[in-house]
Amino acid sequence: MSKIGIIGGSGLYDIEGFVLRKRQAVATPYGKPSDKYLLGKIGKTEVVFLPRHGSHHNIPPHMINYRANIFGFHKLGVKRVLSISAVGGIRKGLKPGDIVILDQVLDMTRNRKSTFYDGKNGVVHIDFTDPYCPKLRETLKKAGRRVRVSVKNGGTYVAVEGPRLESASEIRSFGILGGDVVGMTGMPEASLARELEICYSGLSVVANYAAGISRRKLTVAEVMEAMKATTTNIKRLLSETFRLIPDGRQCICSEALKEAKI
Ligand code: HPA
């Protein structure tokens, strides 16, 4: 069974049954990852955690070394990454606490190093029609049904540069373009993973209504409460997902570099 990576908040380490083996620093040609990787096991599955913003949550979204983070997983032999992120809800009907299995991306970031192929190691154009691994999405959906955690199947993630939040007009525009949720970290994570033939899936937790969506101002206490309640569900969902992930990979991700190089 290949190792499974989790990238997300540090609140996820105490997932039931996670046995920590070691904390490992990983050097990469792209610099330092956000933190040490936590290597351990859940049941028979080898799991590798990385807190995206560092263990003290001190790295803002626009300063994260996305290439180092993803390359670090690759170096550790991780073939699948489950990414957890907080987002603002744009689509009507989405509310704080909802969990969305992402299926599309709108990349609005501008200033990030977003490829491993910057000329020195060839010219590569990976296919990104389906940015998230379809097999992992299926598995997450199935896991949700099994443990009765309600998930929204499908959603377009709008990736913004941050760290500022959006204007109401920006959110309105993103909605017209088909965006369902907005966040600051989902890209270039997804495309970097694809460049290394890593399966990548995105689970987003709606933390707040995006700017201008709700007239009612949300309180921080409400948001924290929604996130706390959802963390329990995310953990249950992940535990079941680990059990359901098959050994071999039969998806577009595992062959992403075939016919992608010039
Ligand atoms: N916008 C961008 N990123 C976010 C938001 C938001 O409203 N909520 C959580 N991450």
Describe this structure in words.
- The protein is α/β, with parallel strands linked by helices.
- It has one domain: 3-Layer(aba) Sandwich (Rossmann fold).
- It has five helices and eleven strands, in the order E-E-E-E-H-E-E-E-H-E-E-H-E-H-E-H.
- The protein has helices at 66-75, 134-147, 168-176, 186-195, 220-244, and strands at 3-8, 18-24, 37-42, 45-51, 78-89, 99-101, 104-107, 152-153, 156-159, 181-183, 199-209.
- Strand 3 and strand 4 form a beta hairpin.
- The longest helix has 25 residues, at 220-244.
- The site of hypoxanthine (HPA) has 12 residues, from strand 5, strand 10 and strand 11.
Count of DSSP strands:
11
DSSP strand (E) fraction? 15-25%
Could you tell me the radius of gyration in angstroms?
Answer: 17 Å
Q: CATH superfamily name?
A: Nucleoside phosphorylase domain
- Domain module tally: 1
Supply the CATH architecture.
3-Layer(aba) Sandwich
Distinct small-molecule ligands in the complex: hypoxanthine
Low-confidence stretches: none
The 3D shape can be described as: globular
| CATH structural class | Alpha Beta
Q: Give the CA-CA distance, first to last residue.
A: 32 Å
What is the H-and-E element order? EEEEHEEEHEEHEHEH
Helix content: 25-40%
What name does the CATH topology carry?
A: Rossmann fold
Mean pLDDT, to the nearest integer, reads 92
Count of helix runs: 5
Q: Give the structural class.
A: alpha/beta
